[in-house]
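Sequence in, structure out.
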Amino acid sequence: MKHDIRGAAHSTIIDWVEPDSSVLELGCGGGELLSRLVTERSVKAQGIEIDDASIYLCVQKGLNVLQEQVDAALRDYSDKTFDFTIFDQSLQRVVRQPDVVLEEALSVSRKTIVGFSNFAHYRARYQIFFKGRTPVTASLPYEWHDTPNLHFLSVADFRGYCDSRNILIEKAAFFTGSGPTRWWPNLMALTGFFQISRGIPAG
């Protein structure tokens, strides 16, 4: 039986988010995650989305959503406006300057949750090494010409990014096609999810 990675990942995020928190989801799509957070965690939810059809779905769910490009969305918020900001696959798909936007997210919220498809999954490596082709996997299901992804990163890439910028990884979860995993996530995981916050400045 195929594992519902998206549903499991959303359940993990919901478990991480504290009840009654204020939450901003960037690139919220049709509002599936935000809707569950409102129902199951009683959060004060705000979404950012650019697609008209997705915004319509959010409005149908009773969600508060602003139509704006994610790269420009955080500039008008003051520090620690939210308890959580969330990127559920949106960092790699809709954010053109992830380094800038992540820094802004860590400023406007106490904690940031980032989820993405792992480009270093062993099936992706196999397709690149043996076939010389852009990989297509369960978490990267698109051909090169129709992919929504702007950035391709791995679990190791994100860990290295956090280390280099004094970003604290508080929690992490990884998912395969058959369920959660803790073993060799950079090789085995199809998707990775991290809860991060601003670390204590060095020195």
